[in-house]
Amino acid sequence: MKTEAFLLEDYKQKVGYLTSHFTRMWTRFNFFLTIESALFTFSMNSAYADYAGLLSLAGLILSLAWYFFGATDNYLVDTYRRQIGHVHHLLEKTLENGGVKKLAGSTEFKVYSYVGDVMDESFNPKNSRVETTPRNFFQNRLKLVSVTELAVVFPTLFFVLWLVRIWY
């Protein structure tokens, strides 16, 4: 197998694995969010007042489990993105002699990157220019917290809610 073919197949497999990981990650997120919300609702219901302490303890334990799953998921997403970037880099190096080098100075190639790389600029094929990627209110990207980090933020918030619930 030629190096280019190997790297291209490796790239495809890594992208597929990242995509599958996102699916598993958000399935876990939804599972924990649903269970935590239901537990918290039950703990606030006066009909279950006798069980509020037990429900709070269960919620704390679930929050910790959710946190560790979320932290691991977030780490793996970063790892898989770096692996994809590495293969992309190797593929570019391998292909330089076959024509990619000719593109290196072109406008189109300036922002060419790998799957999972989030850039503030992109190529607009309508006018053949590199431009700042347009954003509106619904597409704003917070650099402080990424979407994948919500899998860690939410369980932390629930943990605090459970602590407050125990005291009140």
Give the strand tally: 2
- Written as H for each helix and E for each strand, in order along the chain, the element string is HHHHEEH
What percent of residues are in strands?
Answer: under 5%
Which ranges are low-confidence, i.e. pLDDT below 50, for 5 or more consecutive residues?
Answer: none
- Proportion of residues in helical segments: 55-70%
In whole angstroms, the N-to-C terminal distance is: 66 Å
Please state the structural category.
mainly alpha
What does this structure look like?
The chain is mainly alpha-helical and 168 residues long. It has helices at 3-44, 52-95, 100-103, 107-110, 150-167, and strands at 121-124, 129-132. The chain has a two-stranded antiparallel sheet with strand order 1-2. Helix 1 (3-44) packs parallel to helix 5. The radius of gyration is 23 Å and the shape is elongated. It starts with a helix and ends with a helix. The relative contact order is 0.16. The mean pLDDT is 86.
